[in-house]
Amino acid sequence: MIRIAVDVYGGDNAPDCVLDGALEAMREMPDIHVIFCGAQEEVRKLLAGRPHDEARVRIIDAPDVITNHESPTLAIRRKLNASLVKTMDAVKAGEADAAVTAGSTGAALAGGIFRIGRIRGINRPALAPLLPTAAGKPVMLIDCGANVDCKPEYLVQFALMGQAYMRGVMGVDKPKVGLLNIGAEDEKGNDLAKSTFPLLRDHPLVDFYGNVEARDALTGCVQVIVCDGFAGNILLKSTEGAAQLILGKLKDGLLSSTRSKVGALLVKPALKGLKNELDYEQYGGAALLGVTGAVVKAHGSSKAHAYACAIRQARTMVEGKVVDIIAGQLSAAAGDAAK
Amino acid sequence: MIRIAVDVYGGDNAPDCVLDGALEAMREMPDIHVIFCGAQEEVRKLLAGRPHDEARVRIIDAPDVITNHESPTLAIRRKLNASLVKTMDAVKAGEADAAVTAGSTGAALAGGIFRIGRIRGINRPALAPLLPTAAGKPVMLIDCGANVDCKPEYLVQFALMGQAYMRGVMGVDKPKVGLLNIGAEDEKGNDLAKSTFPLLRDHPLVDFYGNVEARDALTGCVQVIVCDGFAGNILLKSTEGAAQLILGKLKDGLLSSTRSKVGALLVKPALKGLKNELDYEQYGGAALLGVTGAVVKAHGSSKAHAYACAIRQARTMVEGKVVDIIAGQLSAAAGDAAK
Question: pLDDT over 90 for what percent of chain B?
Answer without folding.
Answer: 75
